[in-house]
Each structure stands twice: as structure tokens, then as C-alpha cells.
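Researcher: For the record, we're logging two predictions in this thread. I'll number them. Prediction 1 follows.
Model: Prediction 1, sequence and structure:
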Amino acid sequence: MGSMSRPLRILHLTSASDVGGISRYLYNISEAMHRVGHRVAIAGERGTWHEVFEAAPWPWIDVPLRGGPLALRRCCRALDAYLRQNPVDLIHTHYRKATLVARRLAKRYRFPVLYTLHMPGIPMRGLWRLLTDLGDHCHVPSVEARDWLVQNTRCSPELVTVIPHGVDPQRFPRADRAEQAEARAGLGIGSEATVAAFVGRFEDPKNEDWMVDLGVAGRGKLPGFQVLICGQGPREKALKRRIARENVGDICRLVGCGDPKRYYAACDALLVPSRVESFSLVSLEAMCMGRPVLRTRTGGSSLQVVEGVTGHLVPVDRGAFVSESVRFLSDRQALWRMGEAAAQHVREHLAFDRQFKATLDLYHRLLEDYRGRRAS
């Protein structure tokens, strides 16, 4: 492998370049690695966010990692050809099928495999348990995700490292009242309106349809109420039908999957109704821009939300989420104070530079341990 002082060579295996937290995680880590001289490559299928990766200064390798056994065999052949010309020190996987592929390659090329659990609650019974490979080491972004992993798999605690996600305050600067008014003007929303935002994939376990319930419940209770729903996914058509059926098209607005910063800026608060999360990177982004968060008690919530100071936590319950959201949104001055505290909390405890340093340290530690085992 050579000296530890030389640049690292990391290959990421993911499902696809779809919109969502995994793609943002991959892009942010890869960009930071590339910026300081390490070599990075990403392999997976092309998804809805692929134009971002196409413009990146590191290679993308097209392989069918979402396919069945025959497709995964093609993945192995394609990646084997890549590795013969481009050796790597470590494969970092972000998907269970990807870890199966990585394990086969690791036996031939002799490198460790790191698996990141991005979503606890994945199926673990029957055939899924037999086909689950957690790599040589696991990374999780929250204590809640670690606890789920240890309780529901054969993974021992010493093989799990918690590294919370972080955001770069320069990319997500505080949006003051003037910037909020400007963002709202661009969306045709008045400065006195109450605005909630949702950012995420339209699929299980995000519970995006709860935002429609909120639109119904908030009508007439919150002045000029608007619910901005930013994202896309397999349940988009169902979401549109639900909005039409409940007659809340004037409140619940599907705004696509563009840069979420304009929606963070425009809103009074971000709402995260997920049934399961490993962390919720969008919560961190909104907080960094000065917006409080109301979210379900899922992975990462205890790191992000200081109750009543940076936001509010609710149980994973549709009725509780809707009623608490209406109450939470009813005091815009309190929301602004919590948003200021949220922005400071992120800068002090959850900045991206901490995440990046911890990730680099983990890569080096895994390589040292792997080389030590092979030398003994």
C-alpha cells in the first residue's frame, strides 16, 4: 500500500446519484478529500442528481449497483477492471449490496471495507440477514443509529464509530430578515406569512404526506400559511393527488428539488416528520442558516435539537406531529430567537471541518489496523 504519508485513495460505492442526504454526504466528503490532495472515485448508477457529480473533478464509474445477482456480477467485473488500473487503499460503501461487491474485490486486492449505515431500520430478517455484510468497520452519524446497529445485527460495538454529519457555515450562511423577505418575494410569498418547509425524498420513511395534514390543520390558524415541499421521489404523484383531494393546493406547494437554500431562507422553520432517520442533514443545513427545526425523535435529534432553544422534538406520531407543528409555528418571534440559537449551535458543535477530520482519522486508523493484522 505504501507510506501513510502519501495521499489516500478512496473508492465510494453507492446505489445511485439520487437527490438526498447520501448524495450530499458523498459530494461533501469527496470534495473536501479532493481539495487537500487525496484521490477519490465514486461508483454507482446515474440518478436524478447526477449532473452535480458529472461536473465534479473526480471520476464517476457507471455500475448497476441497484440490480440483482447478475447485475452485481457485472459490477464486480467493471470495478475489477478499474482497480487493475487505479489501485485504492480502502472502499467506503453506502449501500448493503455495495458492501457485498466490495467484499469480493477486497479479497483480491487486499484492502479494508468501511460501511456507512445511512438509514437504521433496514430489513434484517431472513435472507436479508444472510446477505448483510457490514464491512470491516461501520460508521454511523448518530448514537441512535449505533444502538440500532448493535441491537439488530451481529456487529460488535468496538467495530462501530460515530461521526456526526456537519455542514460548512460558508455554504449555509445565516439568512437575516432582509434575505428572508427577498427569498419570499421570489416565491410570491408575503413577509407576514407563516411558512414551513420540508426538504427530502418522497418515499418511506420520510412521511412527507404529513405535511399535507399540516396544511389542512393550519388553514385559518396560521396567517398566510404556506408549506413549501422541496424534493422528489417515487411517491410524488401520490402526494400531488393527496394535495388535490384535501383542497390545499393554495397552501402546500411542491417546489421541486433545486437548491434548498432559498427555501431555508424563506421559511420560518424546517419540519422533519420522518419515521426513521440516521441523522437528518437537512435539519443541520436549515439550522446553520438560522432556522429552527421541529423533528421527530429519530437519529441525530439529540445532537441537533436543544429543546425549546434550537427547536422542538415530537414523537413519531402523525397527530402529535401536526398539532405540535401548528403550536410551534404560531409564535414567529420565538421561532426567530430559536433560529439564531440554532445557527450558533451548529457553528460550535456540528461544523463540517470536525466531520471531515474525524473521517480522515477513521480512514487512517482502519488502514493501520488492517496492515497490522496482515503483518502479524
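Researcher: Logged. Prediction 2.
Model: Prediction 2, sequence and structure:
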Amino acid sequence: MSERTTAQIGIIGGSGFYSFFEESGSNVEEITIDTPYGKPSDPITIGELFGKKVAFIPRHGRDHRFLPHLVNYRANVWALKSLGVTRVISPCAAGSLQKHVKPGDFVICDQYVDWTDGRKNTYFEGPNCVHPSAADPYCPELRKIAIEQAKKLGITVHETGTVVVINGPRFTTKSESKFFTNQGWEVINMSQYPEVHLVHELDMCPVTIALITDYDAGLVGDVPPVTHQEVMQVFKSNITRLKSLLVAIIENIPIERNNCECYNTSHTS
């Protein structure tokens, strides 16, 4: 790697979000990283904003070739860590499970529920016995910055929200969706787990910006089934607002971590 090939902030782009630096023009480089866990979804693009190096990787690949249950989350997150990243912003397209969370709204999640199966979800595979904490999975410092900047930009933002992560690639049945709604959870998505937890395991700070694209199918039984094409249409119509928010967050992230314990989540016994 060249001397330039380091970064402080990582962005993992979700469905419909496959590039970040196309408007910046200069001082951008693309690198390919091999990891102990295989290849990441795509080469990583590194650019500079406000004197901070930012690394961007599209979660599903630029051509969306990796479905959510087949993304190599461990490779993606490890690659960012290998560049020196300490903060990771993970935008994602998501469905709403509650009527007051509307399509076009942003949710800065504070909790997740793992409803996936069969995913490689940890870096700890022995022989030491390690039990990472997941009580507060998202960075409070980054969440505060994201909420403040969304409000300044006039974005309708929900300051808290639990995201339930389903395995995919199928969407939920109405009965499954109604069950999730009845639990009081706000957001449904297919990619937040194990991504956010892996970020924690490598002592980086995670924050998620869920862009609500639709009401999930079981929401009081009166919404039509969603299609992938409809999700992408809503996401693409909001991509400019999302990028504006990301730029504002990056501008306001302090160099040093002050108000979080994200670097101290693993416990060995």
C-alpha cells in the first residue's frame, strides 16, 4: 500500500448506493485488499473530505451481485480496519414496521434484533474464550452527530429505532411482519447483522442510517407487498439527501474518540 492508503472513516454503501466520490474529481484512489476471510465485496475507494481520509466500499458490490445472505461481512469490515478506520457509517435501505415511521424518513438505529441464520458472525473462533458485549451496539457519539446533522438538513429523522435483521433474500410473510410490528420494533433490514457487530469486534465505532423505503407487508395488513424495484426507486430518489447527510457527519466527526466505549467491547474469560 502507498503512504496515502490509509483512512479514518469508513462507509459501507447499501442497496442502490454503489459509489461516493464520483463528484469529488481528484485525490481519489482505488485499492484491492485481500483479507484472511476472503475478498471484500469490491475494491475500496479512498478520498479526502475536510482533511479526513474516507474509505468507501459497496456492501453488495457495484453491480449488486452479492445478496444479503451471501455478503462476506467479515472481509468487508476487516478490510476497513486494515486501513486504519476507526469509525464506520453503514447506510442501508430498510422497511418500516410502524406507521409513524414513513417512507423517506431516516432512522438512526440504537438496537438490533438478529433474525438471521448461517452467517459468519464473529472473528473469535478460539482457542481463547471471548464474549464481546453487544448491549449497546451503536456508537453514542456517532449517533448524536448523525441526529444533529439530519435535523440541520431538514431531514425527518427518528432518533432511536430497533432494526430486526432477517436473512433474506425473500421478504417477510404478512404474519412474520405483523409479529415484528407487535414487538414494537421499528425497522426491518437484511444486512445490519453481523456487520455492526463485526465492526464492534474490531474496536471500531458503528452508526447506521436506515433510509425507509416502504412499509413492510404485515403492517396492520393494509399495505401491498413490496418489490425490490420499488425499494430501489425510493432509495434512489433519496440518495442525494443521504450523501448530503454523510458529508455533514464526516465534517463533524472529531479526530479523537471522546464519548464512547466502542474500542472496549470484548471480554476474555
